[in-house]
Amino acid sequence: MSTATDTLGLAEKSLGELTIDDSKGSNAAVEQDSDDDGEEGNAADEGAETAQKKKKKNRKKNKKKKKAAGPGAAGQTSPPSIPVSQLFPNNSYPVGQLCDYVDDNKYRTTSEEMRAKDMLNQQQLTDLRRAAEVHREVRQYARASIRPGMDLTTIAEMIENGTRTLVEERGFESGIGFPTGLSINHCAAHYTPNAGDFVEVQQDDVLKVDFGVHVNGHIIDSAFTLAWNDRYKPLLDAVKEATNTGVREAGIDVRLGDIGAAIQEVMESYEIELDGKTLPIKPIRNLCGHNIGPYLIHSGKSVPIVANRDQTRMEEGELYAIETFGTTGSGYVREEGVCSHYAKTGDGQPRMQSARKVLQSITKNFGTLPFCRRYLDRVGESHYYLGLRNLVDDGIVTAYPPLCDVKGSYTAQSEHTFILRPTVKEVLSRGEDY
Ligand code: HZT
Ligand code: MN
Ligand code: MN
After folding, report:
1. Does residue 14 sit in the same domain as residue 160?
2. pLDDT per residue over 300-313, tens digit each?
């Protein structure tokens, strides 16, 4: 990443100057940091180096971490170990891609009233930009590191450890936004390994990587697709272009159904040849994007990826994740297989003792943020399955099982988070990769 760091000034360019460029493709292209095997410390640190820091330095050396020189994200190690708050001091995180409003909302760019309203949300923006920078730096490492033959738990922990470190996980102030989705082939979403899952990603697989980062409950939700066989390129291109179309179409007063229509048109303009057969690429019609609230991954509105009659409009101030799914299958997902993802979505006092115990732990550790069984394991819960099922049955917890198209099909996903600021649309999760 080579980005400007200005946040509060008017020179809000940086990531906004990036063109939407899909030319790099999504094959886990190895973009290694420039090698610099020696020292780790920033120049600013060298003066006041404590014994603890020296110890840390040696540990890093032993693990052969690599760090490039220079400011900002270029100074991140591999694997990532430096909190983004250190790489971008004074709360000056990279600004996302800025898109001026069009048509009836053109006036917003320069309106004094809108600029004044915009100023009231600076802390939320800073939090979101910090979370987005964590997402970019973690995914850069993930894209370079994920290889066929790796098991999904290793991949999930790589992403989750990176997130926890770079965002400086601390109670409800900062942390993981939701479980790391690692869904393969006909499974489109909401698969993450439970304990004892030894599934490995294979050479000819299509892997969706969907993870979230939050700061003070402000969640960045963004996803990409990896494949190591070039034959999937049209499928991966389709979802990237479809998502970029949805993001471009989005704006204050735009009807959700119109965004779906634009996405569908782009997605259906693609086809793919597999084993000598040409297949249409379809949008998965029962998956959609959504708005996001504080500590709420789904805050009530859904963004379809096919045309529909929904006249609901996007509104000023809203935060959205637009995600599109393309498939060689039926274009419809069903719940399939063992559930891993859950979130507390209701209240109530369960009677069952094991339900009360796991609910206490959920409330204390995750609140309303989605979690998975591995996260319950790591906070020390065990033998909770019966209690958890009881909470789901009582409507206190919602289960989000894996969502899969027909067996033998391939699905891909692309997702970005953006905010409809009073003056401008900011695509927070935009990066050089996607
Ligand atoms: C649910 C549970 C999670 C939200 C979308 C999504 C991953 O399909 C309204 C529209 C994480 C996220 C969600 F653990 N879902 N984005 N990224 N999954 S959703 C949904 O349930 S609700 C879409
Ligand atoms: Mn997502
Ligand atoms: Mn989402």
Report:
1. no
2. 999 999 999 999 99
